[in-house]
Write a structure and sequence with these properties.
This protein has 15 helices and eleven strands. The protein has 469 residues and is of the alpha/beta class. It binds glutamine.
């Protein structure tokens, strides 16, 4: 019999302090659930049983010695976390879900990993994803596709597929992902959990296997906005190892909120259930006194095209280091999607095409950034769908890269302009698949997005739900 697994950080702490369970019991419960069900879901590439028990025993000792005080020093004490397998972890195999790295054991850990360790969290394993974080469905993993725990015939969203699926299946309390163009928000949305794509420059990328460096961000994922906020507090801020990181205090302009509805995000191709769900979210915010105004971001219609020029250009450069000399297997081990992006990227950067593609895309990126910052002169935040449709069936887009790329049509703007965006669950389709929405804010306005997310969940008396397996 598997014990009831707590669904939040506070619940975990309360259970530990009241001696309802020990940290070791929690590890037993999570591991039993993973052993019993992950065969169908495939959310983990590596399970770190030994590490989990070793750290759990120390945590139990701290709690029995210091009680509540232990949680002041270690705010995430006893919280079980799993990392997308693009975060390097000292002594634990890290693959980026690619056969190129199938035997790579790093000698150091990413900043996000170290900071979660230092906050008392317990790493239980490394999560499946699209290889090199290239994808929107989890199907590009060279370790097999991840399935959506809400319905195993459907994709969990990618590229942080395991990070969403493991939370929805209760295989961990917290997870990490990366978002270069939606890869935290989409799996959060498709798995019914909360995920933050932070401001570019808020969380260090040190020790994260690079995809497209001017767009990559590290994102916390959990079942509630409060927990994502606590993770963000634990991992954000300068570490001296990523020169883009700043520590900026966000000053809210107003006491009442105004949210923009960008018309370009609500046009043709948006699924009815997604649209109706968003309408109901807007009604709830209106009830809470939030004002809504129509806004326009005309150049964002080019966002996905711009992304598919800039991103492969950066991918082709970043993947050049996996030449078979330094990190394990040779370039023959790359899958089709990585090869496609290396070819696209070298093409748009080659002489004769650079001006026509790469330079032009960079100019449009500047326009998008400008429109986005102008909009935030008028509104505090912007609301949008995360994806045009609810989760789709496994295989539905796997052989059509262009259709797959369009899944991220609403995600690209936040990455191209460097602003934060949070994906928040807001119900289910009539077929029982998760629905959600995203809120974007100006650079470094994470605290505002957390406040807005919490307001909404409080009003609907939100309780995180777990997929029945
Ligand atoms: N789905 C997008 C892609 O395939 C984004 C991936 C990501 O955010 N890592 O490139």
């Amino acid at each position: 019999m598997i014990m009831d697994i707590p669904s939040t950080i506070n619940e975990t702490r309360d259970g530990l302090l009241s001696k309802k369970y020990r940290v070791v019991d929690l590890i037993n419960a999570y591991l039993a659930k993973i052993a019993r069900y992950d065969g169908q879901i495939n959310s983990f590439i590596t399970v770190c049983e030994e590490n989990a028990y070793k750290v759990a025993k120390k945590a139990d000792k701290l709690i029995s010695e210091f009680g509540e005080k232990a949680f002041q020093d270690y705010p995430l004490l006893g919280c079980v976390v799993a990392h997308k397998d693009v975060f390097v972890t000292e002594g634990i195999r890290t693959t980026a879900a690619s056969k190129v790295l199938d035997s790579y054991v790093p000698c150091y850990s990413a900043t996000a990993v170290t900071r979660l360790d230092n906050a008392g969290a317990i790493c239980i394993g490394k999560l499946n994803c699209d290889a090199w974080a290239h994808g929107s469905s989890g199907e590009n993993s060279q370790f097999g596709a991840t399935k959506n725990p809400w319905n195993l015939k459907y994709v969990p969203g990618g590229s942080s597929s395991g990070s969403g699926a493991a939370l929805a299946a209760d295989f961990c309390l917290l997870s990490t992902g990366t978002d270069t163009c939606g890869s935290v928000r989409l799996p959060s949305n498709y798995c019914g959990v909360v995920g933050l794509k932070p401001t570019y420059g808020a969380i260090s990328r040190y020790g994260v296997i690079a995809m497209a460096s001017s767009l990559d961000t590290v994102g916390p994922m959990a079942k509630t906005v409060e927990d994502v906020e606590m993770m963000f507090q634990a991992i954000s801020g300068p570490d001296g190892k990523d020169a883009t990181i700043a520590s900026v205090k966000y000053q809210s302009k107003n006491s009442s909120f105004k949210i923009g509805i960008p018309k370009e995000f609500f046009g043709e191709g948006l699924d009815d259930e997604v649209r109706n769900n968003l309408d109901s979210v807007i009604q709830i915010y209106k009830k809470l006194g939030v004002d809504f105004v129509d806004v326009s971001l005309p150049s964002t219609k080019y966002a996905i095209s711009v992304y598919y020029v800039i991103q492969p250009a950066e991918v082709s450069s970043n993947l050049a280091r996996y030449d078979g000399i330094r990190y394990g297997n040779s370039r023959d081990a790359f899958g089709d999607e990585a090869k496609r992006r290396i070819m696209l990227g070298t093409y748009v950067l080659s002489s004769g095409y650079y001006d026509a593609y790469y330079l032009k895309a960079m100019k449009v990126r500047t326009l998008i950034r400008k429109e986005v910052s102008d909009v935030f002169e008028k509104v505090d935040a912007v609301i949008a769908p995360v994806a045009p449709t609810p989760p789709f069936k496994i295989g539905a887009k796997a052989n059509d890269p262009l259709q797959m790329y369009l899944t991220d049509i609403y995600a690209a703007t936040a990455n191209l302009s460097g602003i934060p965006s949070i994906a928040i669950p807001s119900g289910f389709t009539k077929n029982g698949l998760p629905l959600g929405f995203q809120l974007m804010g100006p650079r470094f306005s994470e605290s505002l997005l957390f406040d807005l997310g919490k307001k909404y969940h409080k009003e609907i008396s939100y309780k995180p739900s777990v997929a029945k397996l």
